[in-house]
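Researcher: Let's run the pair from yesterday's discussion. Sequence first, then C-alpha cells, for each.
Model: Starting with the first of the pair.
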Amino acid sequence: MTEKQLHNIIEQGEGQFIEFKEKFEKNLQKEIVAFANASGGKILLGISNLGIIKRINITNKLKSQIQDIVYHCDPSIVVGLSEIKDTLIIEVKEGVNKPYSCSLGFFMRMGANSQKMKRDEILRLAIKTGKIRFDEQICTTFSWKDFDEDKFEYYLKIAGISYNMPREDILKNLREKSLRIP
C-alpha cells in the first residue's frame, strides 16, 4: 500500500472492510475476529475514528502483541502486518475455518461495526461453513413408523456391521464406527 492509497482509505472512512484504531488496545481481538468471520478487512493502527493520523511507535513488541492476540483466537488467525510511515496496517483475510472467537466472544463485521454474535447467528455461521452438516443433525420429527427395517438390514450387511444389539444402539454408534474406518 502506498501513502496515496492510505490517504484515500482514510478519506473514505471506516466501513465494512476498514477499521481505524488510534492505538493498540486489547479489544483489538474483537475487530480481528469480526473481519475473519466476515469477508476480511484492514485495521489501521495510528488513525483516530475521525480519520486523523495520530501515528504510533511501531516496535517489535507491538507486532508481537498482535501476533499473540491472533494466536489465542479460536482457531488461530493469520494476519499480515505492514507499515506506512507511523501507521501499522493489520490485514485480516476472510477466515477459512469459521466461526472464530476470542476471549471476548464471537464477533461479525456488519457495516462499520463489529457486533457480538448471538447464539443463533453462531449456529447459522457454523452450518453455512459446513462445521455442522445437515446429515449429522438430529431429525426432531423422526418416527419409527417411517423406519424401513429391510433397508436398515441391507445397509448393515453391505457396511459389514453385525446386528448384535438393538437397532437404536446401532444407529447411535454408526457415526463413531464410521470415524474409525480407514
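Model: Moving on to the second of the pair.
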Amino acid sequence: MMPARSQTSLIDRLPSVRGRYEEDAPLAKLTWFRVGGPVDVLFHPADEQDLQLFMSEKPVDVPVTVLGVGSNMLVRDGGIRGVAIRLGRAFGQIDVEGLTLTAGAGATDISVAAAARDAGIAGLEFLRGVPGTIGGAVRMNAGAYGVDMNDITVSVRAIDSKGRCQEFSRDALGFSYRHCAVSEDWIFTSATLQGRMGNREEIAERMDAIQAEREETQPLRTPTGGSTFKNPDGAKAWELIEKAGCRGLRRGGAMVSEKHCNFLINTGDASAADLEGLGEEIRRRVLEETGITLEWEIHRLGEGSDNSNGPRLKAVTS
C-alpha cells in the first residue's frame, strides 16, 4: 500500500484545464543551450481561452514563467519553481490578409518570414535571421539587419495575471532597443504585423542571403542561445569582447565561440552555471578593459544548484 502524501503537490492545486500538465518536467531538452534543471509543472494550454482560464483560476502564490522555443534563455541548473507555460503548436497559427499577418505567439519567426514571402509581403525578411517565436520577438523587440519589431508591429493580444485579455497598439507597447515596456505579467498570445507589397523572388533572395550570412558568421550547428549581450550605445558587443581577449575563452563545457564572440556555446557537457559564469567573466573583463558594462540579452531563469561551482576559466590558443 502506497503511503499517503504528506502535503498537497503543486499540480493538485492547479485548475482543471483542457490542455496538458507535466510534473517535474525536464527543460534542458526544450532550450537551445541544452542545459538547465526541471520545472515543477509544465503547462501546455489548448488555446487562448484555456490559458485565460488557467490564469484566472490558478493560486495567486504560484509563479508563472512563459517559454517559447528556448532560443534566447538560460535555465539555471536548479530549475524553475512554479509553472512554466509552453506556447506550442496551439499558438502557431499564421493568417494572412492583404499586407498584414496575424501570428500566434508560438509561431516561429522563420515561419512568419516564410508566410510573408509566400504572400509577396516585403519588410519581414529580417525575421529569417531571428531565432525564436513571435511572442519572444515582441517581448524583446527583436531585430536584425537594421529592422526590428517596432517597424512591423500593428498590435498585440495579451493576457494578464487574472486571465483578462487586452489588445495593445504598437505605441502602447513602448518599444525601445531590445525592450518592450509592457509588464512581464502579461503573456503575449498573438501579434498582427504589417509589411509592404513586394516581389516574391526578391524577398526569397533576401531571405536566402540572410541565412547564408548567418551560416557564415554564427555557430548555428552548436548548442547556443543566440546573441549573449546587448550592443551598448555606439558600440558592438562582439568587438568589445574581442578587445578584452575573450574569444575562445572556456569554463567547463562552455566556450566563447571562435566564429562569433558574442555567442556562448555548449561544447557538449556544459552546465548552466558554466555558461552563466563564463558570461559574467566576459562582463568583468570587458568592463576592466573598456569601462563599458555589458548587459545580458539572454534571459536567465530559475535557481542555481548547490554544486554549481565550475572549473576555472582558461583561454584557448589553438
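Researcher: Give me one sentence on the second I can quote.
Model: The chain has three domains: 10-89, 94-207, 220-301.
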